[in-house]
Amino acid sequence: MKGFWAAARKFAVSSWLVFVSQVLEIRHLWFWSLVMMSFIPLTMLGFLLLFGDASPERVIYIVTGSITYSVALQAGLALGQGIGSMKVRRVFDYYASLPITKLSFIFGLNLKALVLCVPSTLTLLAIALLAFGVRLVNSGWLPVAFVLGGFSLAGLGAAIGFYSRSGQIASIATQIATPILVFFAPVYMPEAALPTFLRYTAWVLPTTHVARLLRSAFGEVVEGTGQSVVILVGFVILSVILVQRGLDWRGDRPLA
Amino acid sequence: MAVAYEVAGLTKRYPGPKEVLANDRIDLRITSGEIVGIFGPNGAGKTTLVRQLMGLLRPTAGQIRLFDHDLVREPTAATEYVAYFAQETSYFWYLQARELLIITGRLRGFSTGEAKDQAEDLLARFGLQAMANRTLSRLSFGQARFVVLLTVFMGNRPILILDEPTNDLDPLHRRAFWDYLWEMNSREGITVLLVTHNVHEAEHVVHRVVIVDAGRIVASGTPGELKAGLEGQARVEIALANPLDEHELPTFAGCERLPAKRNTLLLQAARENVEAVIRAVYDRFPSGAVSDLRVVPPTLEDVYVQTVGKEWV
Question: Has this prediction a pTM greater than 0.80?
Fold first, then answer.
């Protein structure tokens, strides 16, 4: 038991230090990072509202879709681009030669991305609550969706980063994965609006379940939220297993 | 003395259409407290070797033992004992010098207080306090590299692997670094694996030399042992007032011409021939053409040139 707590403490400390080093490393970009993290969901929100009605139900779909986009993709998949860029800058070797686990490295990076998503999420929520008068019914689902959403795609993001041969390839892979995860899932629209085939495949996409939990927070979906939590927890566990066992940050990489 | 590294039959191939055999059946034993210089031409496989010793690259074949650990099966064990400075090192351009040192110390297991104390000691030792709160982006490239180099001392690892540590450093910082390394070796008994092209500088620091060429160890021994092979030899260094092209350089009987810069003529001769060689040089060149002439005993660099047989300029 003592060994477990020592390992847990070491994990927490090293994750925190990776997080701190990464946040400080973009200290000159904090403002622009927040702009970047907020820009896409906010413009998507503006665009969809501009070209449709602003009924409360529609607003909920657009706001929760934008938060899902921001959290699951920016926090999860941006990891791939981040790791790819670290490879190019040789920052990877710095961390790999220190006594930290892959998992704490990924956790620290993901935490950074998640923290950077907070302002855009709060902005979207503020717009929904203040400008469109929608109400939060089960606000407890918000942090659950936020955290599980951020970490459920960590494994995929890490895999893209570790196995892409360069930062550019990681970026391309991320951009290919993004529309699949957003537009092939009921993120911005009800499940019934998807073609039948996609309704089934969407169940294996974490974004489906993040959006469902977020809509639950606004009282939109009542049934099946527990199932979505279980599925997202499953994705988080899969990510942990993938990072811990499946990904090799040492391996056979020659110097480029 | 305990054996720090025991390497047997270490082979590394980079697969591909043009497969590269970077390390070929390398056997190497490194004892605790040794400073071992790993020399060799570009592409000889030195960096591949040390990256495997750091657990950053998986060998194709062979064994690496680090103290009681099988590093091939357990590559992360290296992180508990070894601090690594990479040739193409990573720069955290927007971390302050002090922050980088402290974070590295913390990641190597020091408490915040211990990491801060050690960082302050290093900053004071190298006179860096004035720039400690500047981000690396606001330092010169050499200064930033020096700060990154100092991170290897954070966390007191018993083994340091340094790949081209003094590149881009000015002479004062180079000397300060070598002095500190030597001091840490004498005082704390740290083991150092030093990959460098700067054979002349490293000669004064290393206990033992390993010369690698085409992925294999081609010579190994103390500097004294290696230089013994050139005993009875001397090198005549002639600085020419005007540079000469390769085809204009004369040859002299009783000596061998070594590769050198265009305004330098390097001759290696048996000691008994040196006087005749000097006379021949002055006979060959008109008055004023030779701006300096020195006779020096063989250096490690001469051993290197003779062993590797490639240009070293």
Answer: yes
Between chain A and chain B, the number of residue pairs with CB atoms below 8 A apart is: 84
Across chain B, mean pLDDT equals 89
Residues of B whose CB is below 8 A from A250 = 55-58, 75
List of chain A residues whose C-beta atoms are within 8 Å of the C-beta of residue B83: 97
DSSP-assigned beta bridge partners for residue B162 = B85, B194
ipTM: 0.82
Please name the residues in contact with B101: beta carbons below 8 A apart, sequence gap of 6 or more: B115, B118, B119, B122, B123, B147, B150, B151, B154
**Whole-angstrom distance, CA of residue B313 vs CA of residue B305:** 10
Chain B neighbours among A 155-184 (CB < 8 Å)? none
Long-range contacts of B122-131 (CB under 8 A, 24+ apart): B122/B150, B122/B153, B122/B154, B123/B97, B123/B98, B125/B180, B126/B150, B126/B173, B126/B176, B126/B180, B128/B97, B131/B97
**B69 Cβ contact partners less than 8 Å away, ≥ 6 residues apart:** B77, B78
Contacts with B, A 10-69, CB within 8 Å: 13-14, 17, 20-21, 24-28
Query: Rounded distance, CA A15 to CA A17, Å?
Result: 5
- Which pLDDT band, with edges at 50, 70 and 90, does A255 fall under? very low
For the stretch B135-151, pLDDT in tens is 999 999 999 999 999 99
CATH number of this structure's domain B3-226 = 3.40.50.300
Structural domain spans, chain B: 3-226, 232-297
What are the φ and ψ backbone dihedral angles of B266, each rounded to 5 degrees?
Answer: -110, 125
Q: Among B20, B51, B109, select the one facing A99 at the smallest CB separation.
A: B109
Q: Name which of A94, A105, A112, A165 to mutate to probe chain B: the one with the most chain B Cβ atoms within 10 A of its Cβ.
A: A94
Render pLDDT for A205-239 as a digit per residue (tens, 0 to 9).
999 999 999 999 988 766 788 999 999 999 999 98
Q: Are A76 and A215 in contact (CB under 8 A)?
A: no
Question: Could you tell me the strand order of the sheet in which B264-270 lies?
Answer: B255-258, B264-270, B233-240, B290-296
Interhelix angle for A30-50 vs A56-68, to 10°?
Answer: 150
What pLDDT does B149 receive?
Answer: 95
Q: Does CATH number 3.30.70 belong to domain B232-297?
A: yes
Q: Which residue, among B13, B28, B44, has the nearest Cα to B191 in the 3D structure?
A: B28
For the residues B247-261, what does the mean pLDDT come to?
A: 79
